[in-house]
Amino acid sequence: MSQAQDTTKARLLEAAGEEFAEKGFEGATIRAIIERAKANIAAVNYHFGDKEKLYVQAVIESHRCGVDMEPVCMNPADSAAEQLRLYVRHFLERVLAIDNRDSWHHKLMIREMLQPSHASETLVREVIRPKFERLMAILQRACPEADEKRLIASSFSIIGQCLHYKMARPIAERLVGPDAFAGLDLDYLTDHITGFSLAALGIGPPIGCGDRDSRTPVSTSAGNGQGDPR
Amino acid sequence: MSQAQDTTKARLLEAAGEEFAEKGFEGATIRAIIERAKANIAAVNYHFGDKEKLYVQAVIESHRCGVDMEPVCMNPADSAAEQLRLYVRHFLERVLAIDNRDSWHHKLMIREMLQPSHASETLVREVIRPKFERLMAILQRACPEADEKRLIASSFSIIGQCLHYKMARPIAERLVGPDAFAGLDLDYLTDHITGFSLAALGIGPPIGCGDRDSRTPVSTSAGNGQGDPR
DNA sequence: CCGGAATTCAAACAACTGTTTCAATCTAGT
DNA sequence: ACTAGATTGAAACAGTTGTTTGAATTCCGG
Known about the structure:
Largest interface: A-B, 73 and 74 residues
Largest sheet of chain A: none
Radius of gyration of chain A: 20 Å
CATH class of the largest domain in chain A: Mainly Alpha
Number of strands of chain A: 0
CATH topology of the largest domain in chain A: Tetracycline Repressor, domain 2
Oligomer: homodimer
Shape of chain A: elongated
CATH architecture of the largest domain in chain A: Orthogonal Bundle
Number of domains of chain A: 2
Strand content of chain A: under 5%
């Protein structure tokens, strides 16, 4: 069906994704795309029809990298706290990626969030909603007595914390300085956001007001995230 | 100094702000702006020089609405928790505004965050940083023992929660349905985000989980207390 | 090797972009 | 009323945009 190959259509889609993610729909030009893809200018019309259909296809293409969360890591035997930790870490991995090839996928999704196009329905249905319901399930396990409204708001609280480092990255970096911002790496932010949210939900110790040193007490990598000797 | 008047320059700036906020820099056209402002096409060149300078001026203009937080509400006698609550509420008021005339100010700032232009330096220096340091001061009062890194991350956690409702509004609405989304109004979100964050910081009861008494009130001036206890 | 379909290519198209020009008009100051 | 400056107006400019065309080329089953 789709292209792992190096066909013109696939290169076009990849180039379009990067260009659209970087400059937006209006900012990106077909000529820049076909140059990046080393294709002819008529190729986009031949393979996709017009610029807008190419954009929609690029957004849809950026999905495939988004649905790989499910099989990867979730272990039903893990505690809700540990599952949340894995969820946050996986989310942040994509959010903090800027150099690798997958970076434009998330960037394009962000643009689609800010200014939904015809592709947004598909985007929500096939990518965002599955992720969202996964998080909702984790939170419901963690807080069995919370009503749905509270679960939704809490999900948005967690997603919002993660996405902020994607959305406001340039501004945040300028705000606190490059050095301080560089210190907020994947490990630290995973610990912080997980700990912050777990404490908010009543699981685990509060953040920051430690009587001890400031290192977050949640275990760092694939260990159990839950229990911790304060 | 500037225009409360109805001069062409002022109308141009207002129209440009709306148009830029809605369509982005590349998407907005000068002709659409001058049509909205009922001005001639040469006016933008005469008053501002070119399109980019007009954009920068529009971004700068959107500041004036942003610095009014300081004098308004903060009472040094309030507790840190109460100050945080006012901060969050004030932030959310702007974030959730979509219909009123000020809505494009925030929208434009969001665009500037995603894709900083020459105006971002001024934006950070004169608007964002003052707000940010105000929040940092509140958090430092709340958590005197937290180091700066933790304070920064916690600030971003709070800001991220609030901004998410601006950034992802169309997607979030489609995600949970219009009715459920409409339930997340200013009052509810203020309670939720404030409670969520205070609990995370170790002040106040956790959110949503019934294992403890979720009614334990945090002192709130504006009337109702903690989040709705079902 | 042949022949038809699929694909690529260079060139040109019309529409729209931001910008400029210069004359027309309006607005004080005298 | 007159004039100098500020502002507005309509038209045209050069450049770029997305799109189309039709021939040239490649690909592949017979």
